[in-house]
């Protein structure tokens, strides 16, 4: 089921003309698919039952969301014993969760969902300004509106200040004002996350991070991805690998697919001689890193090696 779901997500993205890279070959991973179209970058976690999403993976996704200016989405079909419904957004550890049909509507047809699930049932976000303008145009006072809805004046004021409500109440409001009054749920900007650059990593990997910081790059370590950090200087971002694993070129290939999909540079810092380049990934020897004196020179080194590759 999981494999079929991954394949379906990839086909939907390709149908919508996204550049896509899937990470099915690597573990652990906080996301399974990365995709880009124009300025939209999606980090997608696919789980048949979203109850199995781990909080650590969710936190890593939120971290990458901020660093890469991406949008995280969890796609599944069940939550515990219930099926997810089309057109409804659920939440797990602060991430938006939708089913495959909702994802298709969003990505292919450009139809955003309007309903979200929360304790107590389904809710919607009201277009408060539209409701107020329509009420005033109809010559209805807040008291009139309250009587028609069967609620207090205070509740009506809350609706006009942006308080969410149930589907049934939203339908009553729309019937009274004669127009659509529900806001779509913005899946692209659903998550706001803070990032801690100063996370400390010990050992050889920590030394590499420290050297990158010494020459002027901001470095954000990542724990559950085919790369180990995102390095950044001004507007330049570099997916950075530095784990000295046995099959380093295989890992670099996967890193390269991701960097090409989202149009970001990639580098792998290694203590042994490898090919100059694997796909879009540039290999940098540790001794070369230590010979560089500034972030600008490091970027220049990557681009020189990329041209040589």
UniProtKB/TrEMBL annotation:
InterPro entries: Cro/C1-type_HTH, Lambda_DNA-bd_dom_sf, MTH_967-like, MTH_967_PDDEXK. It holds the Pfam family HTH_3. It comes from the Archaea. GO terms for molecular function: DNA binding; DNA-binding transcription factor activity. Keywords: DNA-binding, Transcription, Transcription regulation. Coiled coil: none annotated. Residues 131-185 form the HTH cro/C1-type domain. The keyword DNA-binding applies. This is Putative HTH-type transcriptional regulatory protein ENN70_01510. It comes from Archaeoglobus fulgidus.
């Amino acid at each position: 089921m999981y494999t079929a779901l991954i394949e379906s997500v990839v086909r939907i993205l390709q149908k919508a003309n996204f550049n896509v890279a899937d990470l099915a070959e690597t573990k652990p991973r906080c996301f399974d698919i990365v995709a880009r179209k124009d300025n939209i970058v999606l980090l997608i976690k696919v789980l048949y039952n979203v109850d199995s999403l781990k909080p650590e993976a969710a936190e890593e996704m939120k971290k990458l969301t901020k660093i890469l200016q991406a949008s995280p989405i969890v796609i599944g079909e069940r939550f515990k014993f219930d099926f997810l419904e089309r057109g409804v957004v659920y939440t797990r550890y602060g991430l938006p969760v939708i089913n495959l049909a909702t994802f298709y509507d969003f990505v292919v047809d450009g139809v955003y969902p309007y309903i979200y699930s929360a304790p107590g049932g389904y809710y919607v976000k009201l277009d408060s300004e539209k409701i107020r303008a329509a009420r005033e145009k109809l010559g209805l006072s807040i008291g009139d509106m309250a009587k028609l809805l069967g609620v207090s004046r205070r509740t009506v004021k809350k609706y006009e200040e942006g308080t969410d409500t149930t589907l049934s109440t939203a339908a009553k409001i729309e019937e009274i004002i004669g127009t659509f009054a529900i806001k779509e749920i913005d899946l692209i900007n659903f998550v706001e996350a803070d990032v801690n650059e100063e996370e400390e990593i010990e050992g050889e990997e920590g030394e590499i991070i420290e050297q990158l910081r010494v020459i002027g790059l901001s470095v954000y370590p990542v724990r559950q991805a085919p790369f180990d950090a995102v390095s950044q200087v001004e507007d330049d971002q570099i997916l950075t690998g530095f784990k000295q694993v046995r099959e380093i070129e295989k890992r670099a290939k996967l890193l390269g697919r991701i960097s090409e999909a989202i149009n970001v540079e990639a580098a792998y810092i290694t203590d042994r001689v490898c090919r100059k380049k694997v796909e879009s990934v540039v290999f940098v020897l540790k001794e070369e890193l230590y010979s560089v004196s500034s972030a600008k020179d490091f970027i220049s080194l990557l681009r020189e090696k990329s041209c040589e590759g």
